[in-house]
Amino acid sequence: MKDNYITVIGAGLAGCEAAWQLAQAGIPVRLFEMKPAKYTPAHKYKGFAELVCSNSLKAERIGSAAGMLKEEMRRLGSLTMLCAERARVSAGGALAVDRTRFSDEVTARIRSHPLITVEEREVTEIPDGRVIIATGPLTSDALSESIGRLIGGEYLHFHDAAAPIVSFESIDMNKAFFASRYGRGKADYINCPMEKDEYERFHEELVHAGSAPLHEFDGNERDGFTVYEGCMPVEVLAKRGADTMRYGPLKPVGIRHPVTNQKYYAVVQLRAENAGGTMYNIVGFQTNLKFGEQKRVFSMIPGLENAEFLRYGVMHRNTFINSPKLMTARFSMRERPELYFAGQMTGVEGYIESAASGILAGLNMARDVKGLPPAILPETTMLGALANYISDETVTDFQPMGSNMGVLPPLENRIKGKQERYEALALRGLADLDRFIKEL
Fold first, then answer.
1. Pairwise pLDDT comparison (1 vs 190), residue with the higher score
2. Candidates 1.10.10.10, 3.40.640.10, 2.60.40.2140, 2.40.30.260; correct CATH number of 165-313?
3. Cα–Cα–Cα angle for 134, 94, 96, rounded to 5 degrees
4. Among the four residues 299, 358, 369, 439, which has the most C-beta atoms within 10 Å?
5. How far apart are CA 111 and CA 133, in angstroms?
């Protein structure tokens, strides 16, 4: 019977989604995961689908790129969305999860599925036959070398950074306050306000703080590393200009004190990490600063003077392939059609994007096994547009891409208002997806 199994390597978001799609289609799966015998530098928890950076799956509203993609995933039978609902924590207009409960939910469903066999060991060579590789941006060195031999010089590298987490009880709520931007959703974010002089002192210390050498996080350092914008270290952002952070993670627009109605020069936001609200993530503060420097500089933020850091920010190596030269829109290799890739290593950027790519890889592998034509999603859908991007042979300087409205084809009739236009794009794409699913 084993010869009839589909091999999925990696039990992260993409691998679990791929395995789930196959199993739900009645196809047996062998899912390989090297934890708990071996961990990457960023992974700490034994469960599947571990979230190593933020615990947010981004905006919920349909008229946003992330909200549109999540709704597409729901309609395609996403395991991630199912488990995220059960592990949800308050996050205003975003979908955020208790990361431990989320991982446990995914793990329980994968392990209990009668058609999924989990094998806890490291895979060091690409197996023969039908395989989905979803080992993520921190693929082990041995498997990385095997992939590198397969695809030659088309392997790329970059670094990703994670933000610190502090305990709620250590935050001075006499200085900080709960509020959401523009009053949207519940007041779930903790806001640490800064006046101009406080911000300027903080900025000065941040740009001169000591960073950890990259090689401490990467045992295989090479030339040409890049860091994509979605996880840009806050100290790098600060060095771009005195006000850069005020247009990014410290943006004060839409934030007022709930009692005094006061506006501020800059605002640092914190978001709940778990359902109990005992841990908070400093939003947008991905960093590569030394731990001592993080404690010193981030304690300058009003309300965090005595913050207890439960996890310091870290930077680690990420790996992705040059997908436009190698991959099709169904996430299979052009030169070896029975081999699929899914997740961030394909160049999709972000949690939900990685999970969504696993859905499409699993769906297409299932159709391939059954002798059915591939599922190429409409380009008007967010997932279809991302699949087109990573497989576009005209792309020469390939960089990771997250969901955004700019990847979608324009509307036939121009709509002036940005939000109205985004909602129209989302509704068009979802309608096209419904027709596509019905045809499948």
1. 190
2. 2.40.30.260
3. 55
4. 358
5. 19
